[in-house]
Amino acid sequence: MKYAVRSFIGTRNIQEDCADCIPTENGIFAIVCDGIGSRANGGESSRMAVRLFSEKFRNEFSDNFPQFITRAAEYIDDEVFKTYGDRCGTTAVVAYIENNLLYWLSVGDSRMYIIRNGQMKQITTDHNYRYILDLRLKKNLIDEKTYNKELKNSELLASFIGMGCIDIVDVSLKPIFLKNGDIIILTTDGLYKPLAERKLCDIIVSGDDPDKIADDLISAVKECGGSLDNTTFTLIFF
Amino acid sequence: MKLKRCPNLNYYDGDKYDKCPCAKCAAQAAADAKSIPTPQPESKPVHKPETAPEEKAETKPETAPEEKVETKPETAPEEKVETKPETAPEEKVETKPETLPEEKTEMSNKSSNSGTVWRCNCGAVNSGGFCSECGSPKPQPEKKEEKKEESSLIWKCTCGAENKGKFCSECGATKPQPEKKEEKKEEPSPIWKCNCGAENKGNFCFECGMPKPSSNNTAEKSPAPAPQPTPESSEQKSATESLTQQINESKFTGTMEDAKKNISDINDGPGTIVLFDELEDDFVLAWLVVTNTSSKGKIFTINSPKSTIGRASPELPVDIDLHNDRGVSRGVQAIFVYDPLNKKFFLQSSGGKTYVYVNGEMLLTYKELNAYDKIRLGDTNLVFVPLCSEKFSW
After folding, report:
1. Contacts of B273 in chain A (CB under 8 A)
2. Contact at 8 Å (CB) between A33 and A43?
3. Would the pTM count as exceeding 0.90?
4. Domain range for A109
5. Which of residues 102-131 of A touch B (CB under 8 A)?
6. Three-state SS string across A127-153, please?
7. For B35-52, how does the pLDDT look when each residue is reduced to its tens digit (9 = 90+)?
8. Cβ A64–B247 below 8 Å, yes or no?
9. How distant is the Cα of B216 from the closest Cα of chain A, in angstroms?
């Protein structure tokens, strides 16, 4: 198993993303966090979350990853909220590979993809206002008119670490069975928003060296030009 | 005047007559004429039907049947007159060789080739360029092909009569359509080249009679097999589908409380996991509507005669979880009680750390609830909306 981590500040003044990878005997634990820029302590929130997730994994994890990571997320959310109050927040996407089993947890709009046979599939769901609107529309709580009216705020975060009580969470109840050649990518929105999914996939499957592909991805983001968000991602070649 | 003497010893004017005009000589000449094989009208239509299509194919391979019909009446009368003397013997040789004596065959060949002896329409037998009796010129042999055409137009009815027109002169039956017409209709008949070099459209070569090569037909009739999807693409598709299915089966998206509940359910054993299934099996008794905080507008349903409210933790579950309100302590803070006999609601304090207010008054023991009463727990304000009352109940 090979992996690569990259972080790119973009055109912002500060880097609010944070990431970490912990190789284990049978796999790897990886986390990517995106501090909320609109809040004063976004960068501190993401770094604190990464640090606490890594510490908890090293010190407390034994088995039953879904249960461990859910409790850990709740605890870290509480800790971040207690430390920084209302002026904080971070997304978090966590992956854990043990042998050929893939587990994950996500809060917020950072994503995890799996690439198999040249096809890229998004595993996580974005916890933004669009998700809330889709849910309400599906349950007939709102009508089409209200839905379309509210879509302008569709990218607002609806759930994150540090809100004091995580409202929405993505978690693997059962693992995904990985195959040789599968590629996992955990990324903040700085990568998937400027790059179309097809282009992202084409770059990722263009070789088998994660470091080179990671550099190519950063180059592709830079080529987009304009205002660029913080970009952080972790590539794992199974 | 030049006097000549005939074999019967009669004298005649040699300048005026080629032969003696006496009765004996005339009878003798008539007898000689009978021995010459002149074409009989009956012998013309003796053509075998097989030969007709070949001739048709040679001369008019592509003409429509209607055109053939139109040309019939025009050509037929001329041919009758002109082709009698020379074309018939050749046809006889071709069509009925076994019935004709060898001498006649030789003679006919001779006549057709040299053209020394011919019979005029007046009945006189001549060997020169003009009839000795009426002075008519010797018919030209170039009508051979027309004769063939004419003979090819003759058809034999099922009653046995041979005809040239569209209908049988004996029974009135219509002329059968040529086989080639049907062949044309049956298949577009693309042009194929025979081994002899002739280009044909039918199933047989009009030159040598060889059948159309079967391989061509097979190639034309059997279309190329449709491209089948490669096994790789189907495998890839199934692999992608199975991955999507696996993700959907593994993935949970929802509230943290539901996530924990699902995870604990999994720990208890395998079971069907339903995401966002908020449909309640129990009948609705009342609702609580959040009017402030980030959960503004959220609705909690009271569907149990005793429903607890507070902030849940893994160890302290509650029915109505104000999980977004950090001002609410963990565990049960109050209990909604429905009296089904009197159809009344009450809010009872559970003695928790969080203060509970009803319409601004602190709840220490219990208080009867009425429609649109305002309840406050921690930082959360709720409005009580009953369904069951004296006006309605389950």
Report:
1. 173
2. no
3. no
4. 2-125+159-237
5. 114, 116-119, 121, 123-125, 127, 131
6. CEHHHHHHHHHHCCCCCHHHHHHHHHH
7. 544 444 444 433 434 433
8. no
9. 44
